Amino acid sequence: MLSKKNQTLGEFIIENQDSFQYSSGELSKLINAIRLAAKVVNHEVSKAGLIDILGGVGETNVQGEDQQKLDLFANEKFIQTLKNREIVCGIASEEEDSFISINSNDDNHQNKYVVLIDPLDGSSNIDVNVSVGTIFSIYRRVTPVGTPVTIEDFLQPGNKQVAAGYVVYGTSTMLVYTTGDGVNGFTLNPALGTFYLSHPNMQFPVNGHIYSVNEGNYVHFNQGVKDYIKYCQMEEGDRPYTSRYIGSLVSDFHRNMIKGGIYMYPKSSVTMNGKLRLLYECNPMAFLAEQANGLAIGGKNRIMDIQPTELHQRVPFFCGSRNMVEKLQEFLKKYH
Ligand SMILES: O=P(O)(O)OC[C@H]1O[C@](O)(COP(=O)(O)O)[C@@H](O)[C@@H]1O
Ligand SMILES: [Mg+2]
Ligand SMILES: [Mg+2]
């Protein structure tokens, strides 16, 4: 991977095109499309209080969650931008019941990629001015080029991803992604509308001192998770760790990748499979984590080895600094 601090995202994409195993320029166009949609969404997010984009639309998505205006705005912008560029043959989104098959105007199109997105991550934080994000995961289709995509093209295990990333709309706006050759972070200069390489070759510190979990659910967690949380809080060695939970997966992950930490959304007696969606939340964050020397598990198993069965399936998710996730796994194993 070739990287020079402060080079633009556009320059970085071109310079690293050949390090991508399927390099044909299509993936570069795809990342460029995501860059463009991220800027459009960032523009709305940054002035959310001034325009009528706060609050819900009074409808729920396929998962029974209240859809926020910004969920739908971001969903529309990412789908539209990807469609207009004629580089993907299918899209799946948290806000769409089923996948969208993209028919090209060019019958001989060679579009090989499908994209899965969480257009707006951290929806519960939109109205309270806390950082939110967008998450994306990219696969090569498994069905023949030129034919309509099928569910098979989306239900691929995470270890088949060719690229994944997120945008965090926070104190600054960053796009962080991997194509399987390390993780790089780009910060948007809003005045110029350009992303610059600010965080080359991001790495999870092997150890960390931050644990991120919604402790309001503590009583519903299984004993292994409870014991690990108690371990984090114990006055011993380099503990207690600090508890930090923003409630936006992207923002909690981003902080933990920079400072060292572990994020947990376990299954519980109320959320039998946890809350987070395997295909457009857990798999992309797991790909990034592993590319940044971290780990991502669902309990006993590696998240990216899970064979998906449904578009919106949920799985327990534990992700972060290598030694912290391995320690948690020790506690979980005690009760399996
Ligand atoms: O409020 P809870 O139950 O702790 O859940 C917070 C988690 O849910 C999410 O908001 C789910 O994502 P969406 O906002 O995209 O639905 C994560 O970003 C976050 O980590
Ligand atoms: Mg989400
Ligand atoms: Mg969302």
UniProtKB/TrEMBL annotation:
This enzyme's EC code(s): 3.1.3.11
Annotated Gene Ontology cellular component terms: cytosol
Organism: Maribacter hydrothermalis
Residues holding Mg(2+) 1: E94, D118, L120
Fructose-1-6-bisphosphatase class 1 C-terminal domain boundaries: 205-332
InterPro entries documented for this protein: FBPase_C_dom (IPR044015), FBPase_class-1 (IPR000146), FBPase_N (IPR033391), FBPtase (IPR028343), Fructose_bisphosphatase_AS (IPR020548)
Cofactor binding note of this UniProt entry: Binds 2 magnesium ions per subunit.
Official protein name in the record: Fructose-1,6-bisphosphatase class 1
One Pfam family matching this protein: FBPase_C
